[in-house]
Design a protein that fits this description.
Number of strands: 8
Strand content: 5-15%
Strand order of the largest sheet: 2-3-1-4-5-6
Order of helices and strands: EEHHEHEHEHHEHHEE
Shape: globular
Radius of gyration: 19 Å
Helix content: 25-40%
Structural class: alpha/beta
Number of helices: 8
Amino acid sequence: MLSTDTIARVVLNLTSASAGAAAFDTGLLLVKPGTFTTEKRMRAYSSATEAAAGMIADGFPVTSDEYKAGLKYFAASPTPGKLLVSGSPASESLPQALAAVLERTQDFYGVLPVVSGMTTQDWLDLAAAIESATRPLMLFAAVTGTPAEATAANSLLDKLYARGSRRVVPFYCSGAPDAAALMGTAMGLERKYNASGTSFTLCYKQVNGIEPSDLTQAQVDAIKEKNGNVFVVRGYSHL
């Protein structure tokens, strides 16, 4: 049989199915329950009321960052579609925890770890896992400390910038619950504008449930120079 290459060359590219549209209005919290059980590997909530009840039932007190993150996530307007909360044992790394979730579902877009004592390397390892994932994901990274600490050489923000990370949203804030508020805002906007040919920006958006950072223009510029994001007052608006 003669080759058809001189007439037409056919190349077949096989790719895995992409996530459904509904996945892009859903965020994932990676947490470490004090007592891990397989039932705590995956929880799904559709409202702040459900999240509050579920987090308390799983042993997270109302004063915990995990509980506050769930409520601040759903405080966004427009409201995000759903929140997934995945627990993992203390011995499991965050990339391993993310892989375990992806084995069960790919119907989420935003990812935020709410784990105390995370090191810069922990963040970088999770960012690498997000970047190499076979489906689109966005990591919301809480950048804390003083403005000088946040922008210092070898800081988390500095290392993310040096890596050229494209699927990370570094947010200068007081901690993970505030980063959850930003993720909820993003997922809510994804839900609102989830249509072909549409887009949105987080710039100049109100983030409910958090206080704006008290930063000088020089400090804002230093954070932005390393692709960091801030929530500040401009005139009479929080941006």
